[in-house]
Fold this sequence. Notes:
Rossmann fold; 8-stranded mixed beta sheet; 415 residues; globular
Amino acid sequence: MKVGIIGLGYVGLPLAVAFAEAGADVVGVDADSRKVERLRRSESDVEDISSKRLREVAPRFTATTEHEHLGACDAVLICVPTPLANQREPDLSYIVDAATSLSSVLREGQLVVLESTTYPGTTRDRLRPILEESGLAAGRDFHLAFSPERIDPGRTDYDIRTTPKVVGPLTAACRDRAVALYELVCDEVVAVSTPEAAELAKLLENIFRSVNIALVNELAILCDRMAIDVWEVVDAASTKPFGFMRFDPGPGMGGHCLPVDPFYLAFKAREYDFPTEFIELAGKINQNQPHFCVEKIQHALNDARKPVNGSRVLLLGAAYKAGVGDIRESPSLKIARLLRELGAEVTYHDPHVAELPELGLRSGDLDAELAACDVACIVTAHPKLDYRAVVQAAPLVVDFRGVTGDIEAENLVRL
């Protein structure tokens, strides 16, 4: 079995390693030549994949920038980014580029699977026509399916093997081929009837989280005005053993999927003259949460008789979630920009993110930054950080993650 992977990021690289560990020969294609060179040296820049694992699969894993090598593969998985364009509409340019390159080497009998998150109809209406420019027909000459990635960076209790894999095939034969492929690396494969069903299932998973995070973030703002501890409220509600699922408030949403997926579905829904007002509202609430956090910082500084303008604000955490170095759509970046617009001097500390070139910042020494700052803001609750020591060292602390619940201090302000 020879498997091709287009895109060697947070989705593609773990898949490439999983298939190689299962005994398949893997060809990984990425447009970033510097990344390819690092992978050839078995150097990983994805937290979930250690360099040690890359070295162990090196005999079965080839990284390249050339799509020509995909012609010899039995299956090709497309794992490229699907960001939003300027008007918050889907940007499928990476999928189009990957499909165009693949169509030039596509051969009869191959299986092509799209893993990139997208709106219903992309596999059938956008990907399929480009691949068929090869002269081969999908469902007849080659197999086509959609199988959404379910990677949660930094998570250790569920991985590729233990997370059920959803597959949406174009035909029954496509289903059989896709199921057989993923059974090599997944304990459970769930086949649905069409690519559209799988595409929408992926959006539903993330929109479910987006909506509930928006609900608890809005509640946090209300609790702030009512002088009620939102963490106490969430803790109390979470004691109910049925009918309630815990979601915690925070500074906003980050990562590739959660801030993006609601707008992908909203875009598609407009074709059917159906405004997804509830879903879009959740996205807007979460996008606005960094503004509320900045207001919270302003008020905390004001109570300490300090203006934001000229104050040194330390952000603890630049990544969008704990335990990883992924800064895609991170609310910390938005908070930093908003604070700068108000005249604050912004610094940050993050053990997983060495620098933020777009902001011209490098992660500072924690002890030195705590001693120099006017306020330290807990934006990303990385593990192993001693938050009690943070509260003791900083003149003022604002906690947006609820990690200081067992600490009582006059210089501590919580969301």
